[in-house]
From TrEMBL:
Family: Belongs to the sel-1 family.
The Protein kinase domain, residue ranges: 1-141
SMART domains: SEL1
Name of the protein this chain belongs to: Protein kinase domain-containing protein
Domain of life: Eukaryota
GO MF entry, a single one: ATP binding
InterPro entries assigned to the protein according to its UniProt record, in alphabetical order: Kinase-like_dom_sf, Prot_kinase_dom, Sel1-like, Sel1_AlgK, Ser-Thr/Tyr_kinase_cat_dom, TPR-like_helical_dom_sf
Pfam families to which the protein is assigned, alphabetical: PK_Tyr_Ser-Thr, Sel1
Xref: Gene3D superfamilies: Tetratricopeptide repeat domain, Transferase(Phosphotransferase) domain 1
Length: 544
């Protein structure tokens, strides 16, 4: 019986430290507020958690980050009862959670024993009972209860010990789970699978883990279905995505709350050979939320509802990015303007894009890399940015080539390497990317190759890159690489100004115009002088 575990003695002895030694999910919430130390009442609360765990087949609050458990439990959050659990049993562990006056250390064990005897033990799968259960007498039932409880008291799903009345012994824990499994207990199957998968009390063996997970899943244990879904997703198994989705869906439909979230994500992303289904995704997100799922998915629901707005914002950002690489910054256009416009929505935009690769038609990796580089919706990370640009470049993205070259040239997220920068700039330039042509011109200018610098400036300027118009004008004005040509300099200065170039060049234009006028006047005077000289020469010839 449960009393044989020594719990009755522990509950009647002096206050124990067993609760403090346990994991957070088992701690009496009053302890979090320093209203009660780990005394007998705390032990009663923790035993109530263990009683719930026996029916669920897994540790409490698995879908809450450990750092948030104390806060949520302190605010009154409790696990929901498992479908099919007898009401008397549910009432029992809830009384333990509330530490009702009628539940004391003296009568707790007898209450537990009498309550458990009133119903079939295999409650986790009410629809599919093991045939052997009908043949169990009271003695065998008592032993089966011991098998399960002893295992749960020794080990949780992560291989950590609860240390509730017993010392940590993973091998002993595995032994009890094995006994329970051999007797056909659904939770025993699952826990043996956990042991094999995580190497708890036994050498890791993924194949055996799958076998035992499958045994428990076939009987309808939700957490086993959930773990199978994760197993298929994370391992290279035939039809892994479809099978994974099917297990998520089955456990979600049976009421397993974490699976409801993953089903929503599957529909949201078009995962498991399913087409994206906004309606289904929203339905499952809301079901997860209604069932008190522990993750805050308010933004994800908003994103699902407001998806057209997010897609519109992303497409606008992509178009502005492309425009930046085509014409560059002007008085009326700056790529940073669009990032500033959507700054308040940046986190949602970034997360949505990360989860929905098909939300934009092209340049997905480049946009993600740019978000990391700019710290848009995510913490600025140059190395992560470089990684995404590199992926884009490997896929042949023209903008990926350029951004990778820029990273190498400036040492952004990678060690500076001008040779590699030149290589990637040229790849982008050969495909006609204006900003790459301009940067190549800068590269050759820095390396004193005037002819190539001027050639790339002029090519990008003719392609419409506004900034290059100024550089071409300046080259003609000072005679850089080419003979000085004030008229062409004025033409390109005016082109720059007409296209709203960022720099104020009115004085430069005025100065060039004056020089051109002076040059024109000088040319006229020279021409007139030549004509007069020619006329005088002809007059002298006629007098001879």
């Amino acid at each position: 019986m449960i009393a044989d575990l020594g719990l009755s003695k522990q509950l009647t002895d002096t206050p124990t430290n067993s609760i403090i030694a346990g994991v957070v999910g088992y701690i009496d919430p009053w302890c979090f507020e320093n209203k009660r130390s780990g005394d007998k009442k705390s032990d009663i609360y923790s035993l109530g958690i263990l009683l719930w765990e026996i029916t669920s087949g897994h540790s409490p609050y698995m879908d809450i980050g450990e750092q948030f458990i104390s806060y949520r439990v302190g605010k009154g959050h409790r696990e929901n009862s498992i479908e099919g659990t007898p009401p008397d049993y549910v009432g029992l562990y809830k009384k333990c959670w509330n530490v009702e006056p009628k539940i004391t250390s003296k009568n707790l064990i007898s209450i537990i024993t009498n309550t458990i005897k009133t119903f079939d033990w295999n409650i986790s799968s009410p629809k599919e009972k093991n045939d052997n259960d009908n043949n169990l007498d009271d003695t065998e039932l008592d032993r089966l209860v011991d098998d399960i409880v002893k295992g749960y008291l020794k080990n949780n799903n992560n291989g950590k010990t609860k240390s509730f009345g017993v010392g940590k012994d993973e091998k002993e824990s595995f032994k009890w789970y094995d006994i329970a499994s051999k007797k056909g207990d659904i939770n025993g199957h699952f826990e043996i699978g956990e042991c094999y998968y995580n190497g708890i009390g036994i050498e890791k063996d993924s194949i055996k883990a799958l076998e035992y997970y499958q045994l428990a899943a076939d009987k309808g244990l939700n957490i086993a279905l959930f773990n199978l879904a994760k197993y298929y997703y994370n391992n290279n198994i035939s039809n892994k995505f479809t099978t994974s989705f099917d297990y998520y869906k089955k456990s979600a439909e049976n009421g397993y709350v974490p699976s409801q979230y993953y089903v929503a994500k599957c529909y949201h992303n078009g995962y498991g050979n399913k087409k994206r289904n906004k309606k289904e995704a929203l339905e499952w997100f809301r079901k997860y939320q209604e069932n008190d799922g522990s993750w805050n998915i308010t933004d994800e629901i908003k994103d699902e509802v407001n998806e057209p707005e997010l897609v519109k914002a992303l497409n606008e950002i992509v178009e502005e990015y492309k425009k930046n690489n085509d014409i560059g910054t002007t008085k009326k256009f700056d790529f940073n303007y669009i990032l500033e416009k959507y700054k308040s929505q940046s986190t949602r935009i970034f997360n949505y894009l990360k989860d929905n690769q098909t939300s934009i038609q092209q340049h997905y990796e480049v946009v993600i890399g740019t978000f990391y580089k700019e710290g848009f919706g995510v913490k600025k990370d140059d190395k992560e940015s470089f990684t995404w640009y590199n992926t884009a470049s490997q896929k042949g993205d023209i903008n990926g080539h350029f951004e990778l070259g820029k990273c190498y040239y400036n040492g952004i997220g990678v060690e500076k390497d001008c040779k590699k920068a030149l290589k990637y700039y040229q790849q982008a330039a050969e495909e006609g990317l204006n900003i790459a042509l301009c940067n190549l011109a800068e590269y050759f200018k820095d390396n004193e190759d005037k002819s190539k610098a001027f050639g790339y400036y002029k090519k990008s300027a003719k392609g419409g890159f506004v900034q290059s118009c100024y550089y071409v004008a300046n080259c003609y004005n000072i005679g850089y690489s080419k003979k000085r040509n004030i008229k062409k300099a004025l033409t390109w200065f005016e082109e720059y100004q007409k296209n709203d170039g960022s720099w104020e060049i009115s004085e430069e234009i005025t100065k060039v115009e004056k020089q051109l006028t002076e040059y024109s006047d000088q040319k006229k005077e020279t021409s007139l002088s030549k004509r007069l000289s020619l006329k005088s020469s002809r007059s002298s010839s006629s007098n001879l």
